[in-house]
Amino acid sequence: MSSGHNPDGRGDMQHRTVAELMTRDVVKARRDLPFKEIVRLLTDNDVTAVPVVDDRDRPMGVVSEADLLRKSADQADPSGRVPVPHLEAWERAKAEGSRAEELMSAPAVCARPEWSVVEAARLMEAQHVKRLPVVDETDRLLGIVSRRDLLRIFLRRDDAIRDEITEDVLRRTMRLAPSEVTVEVRDGRVDLRGSVEFRSLIPVIERLCRSVDGVVSVAEHLAYRTDDAQRFPTTAT
After folding, report:
1. What is the DSSP letter of 17?
2. In what residue span(s) does the BON domain sit (predicted)?
């Protein structure tokens, strides 16, 4: 029998932060770095983009291979087979640029080191970017986090995922006895089996399990002893 539950709380659950996943030794470009030096910087360091920083090491924008390729795309094709693409005014200005601050995509979309993976991923998706410079409270560059960095949480070991769900989700947050729900994890896929006191607990448990770092999917096979779904009937409108 459970001794109470906390459906909205997070208990002691911990999530990987941007600070834990970001690259700290950042390859960066000064605002006045010439085009060819940017190409060399990307090539020598085997990266596809770098943040552009000002004199106080604050990100101004990001210059990527895509930004640099606009210069090539703006050139006429000697063979005449491919027409010169139409470029918006801002695209043409970048294509004609010769320094980092003229070529970069700006302003820089940045993350904070204390953010969770979810917060960083949502910002990337909303802003359609592949990486985020990470800054401190004074906007100085601390690191950079990429999509690949965020995906590293899915390499987490199954036993670590199972332990977090068992201890943090079920025992500490939901206050469930170990005998009520068993947890199996394989390749990040979580399987929950057992019985809980109230029906309303089941979607809460599932939601909390899905939020655990490294979880790919959750399948629940949970029974309940009390159907509390009708305790607060919905009023028809």
Report:
1. B
2. 158-226
